Amino acid sequence: MSLQTLDVNAVLHNMHAQILALTTQLAKLQANPPAAAPSVEKKFNKKVEVANWDAFANKFEVATAVLSQLKGPVAGRYTQVRLQECYTACVWPTWDNLKVEIKKYFKLQAERDWACQQIRTFKQGNIRTDDYVTRFLALSIQGGLENEHAVELLEHNVNPCIAEQTYQQDKRHDNLALAAEEVRQVSRAMELYAMHQGGGSTTKNNYPQRRPGSSNQHNHSHGFKPFGLQPGQGAPMNIGAVQGGQMHRFKGSCYNCGQEGHMS
């Protein structure tokens, strides 16, 4: 078990070094863009041809090996976002899914225009927040959006309850990666609150409709239904029906509704 932990730590250390190298490479390319360079997809396909896949034991190793080899400004940003997403969720794509994903995200300009159009109307709706943020970041990379514009779209398209809490708690960021992380954290806090208040499952974007301080007496578990003299619950009790008619029918007025013949 300890040997496995050491192996994972070593791989993560190598990942960190590779991401740092990609970031440095990105800065150099942005400062001195090459006149002409092969596309990311062609470079990727070339690496695939010579790769020895028998050397990789699982999806984690395959994903980190492939993603860390992507080069260029757009690919560098994509690699950073994708590795962080996989590491946070502890879910790594299969080799087949990775091929489809990379081919999809590095298309021609027409495809990037399509991504820009999609992200403008990409509302969260009932999508789970972690999934929504992942897809939003992917579209922003594919569309080549400017950081400020992407942050504005994220705040506009995310669930309004999350956006409201982000503003109220002063957790807005101008950086897209930081803004996305704050959206995740606010969503998790809201899910924990919903669980604490007896809300539903947190696997979907279900936020409590009940406001703090409001009554929660209508929620009864295990099929329990209130009756009789429980205050404020159930139908009014007919006193004349109690104990087989041994008590006389109540002649006063009900404290709740003002009608005669029963009491609350």
Automatic annotation (TrEMBL):
Residues 202-218 have a biased composition (Polar residues). Pfam families: zf-CCHC. GO terms for molecular function: nucleic acid binding; zinc ion binding. It comes from the Eukaryota. InterPro entries: Znf_CCHC (IPR001878). Residues 253-264 form the CCHC-type domain. Residues 197-233 are annotated as: Disordered. This is CCHC-type domain-containing protein. It comes from Serpula lacrymans var. lacrymans (strain S7.3) (Dry rot fungus).
